[in-house]
Design brief:
Radius of gyration: 21 Å
Strand content: under 5%
Number of helices: 12
Structural class: mainly alpha
Distance between the termini: 45 Å
């Protein structure tokens, strides 16, 4: 109900109650959810014009909106603007943009950003590895995905079933069903329980 939300903001201004960062972030998020990215960017620009009202969360909202609506170059531009505004991207910023690049098939840029993230001192979390693994598997970079999985194990990261589902599905789609079956059969030894999606992926791979 973003139009109603906008009316409330206008009412605030009429009553001499100045909207703050949370107000504008909420309104911008509403526009992003509706895919009205021009309106969302207008709110973002308005916040900038008010001086130091934009924060990392504001940028993350807009980047996520652009990525969700497949406007990856616009998302990349906001990421670059963050440096000009002296805002430090956080893990959410990197995760969102890496996922966006991966879904757009721009795997080299996703990998570059993953490396850049670590170079800037931002440690990847499980969600970061999940999105980069998904990007690699979706773009037929299975050997790199397996290598990354080993790296996660070496770092003692807690691997969940979502990560294994990505690997198993990637192997099935590449026709390496026996390798997928090996990973599937080894889940219990890793202390991970398969879910409905795991079985569905495996059944589909075997049938094909």
């Amino acid at each position: 109900m973003v139009m109603e939300a906008k009316s409330v903001v206008e009412m605030m201004i009429q009553r001499q109650i100045q909207p703050n960062l949370v107000t504008y972030n909420s309104l911008m998020d509403g526009y992003c959810l509706r895919g009205e990215m021009d309106e969302a960017k207008n709110v973002f620009d308005l916040m900038i014009s008010k001086g130091s009202m934009v924060n990392v969360q504001s940028c993350n909202i807009l980047i996520n909106g652009y990525c969700k609506h497949k406007k990856i170059d616009e998302a990349k531009n906001i990421f670059q603007e963050m440096h000009l505004m002296e805002l430090v991207p956080n893990t959410i910023t990197y995760n969102t943009l890496i996922d966006g690049f991966g879904k757009a098939g721009r795997i080299k840029e996703a990998e570059k950003l993953f490396s850049q993230m670590q170079g800037c001192g931002q440690l990847p979390d499980v969600q970061t590895y999940t999105v980069i693994l998904d990007a690699l598997c979706s773009n037929q970079k299975l050997s790199k995905a397996i290598e990354l999985l080993r790296e996660m194990k070496d770092k003692k990261l807690e691997l969940n079933i979502v990560i294994y589902n990505i690997i198993i599905e990637g192997l099935c789609k590449a026709g390496e069903v026996q390798s997928a079956k090996d990973v599937f059969c080894g889940l219990s030894s890793q202390g991970v329980q398969p879910d409905v999606r795991t079985y569905t992926i495996m059944i589909s791979g075997l049938c094909k």
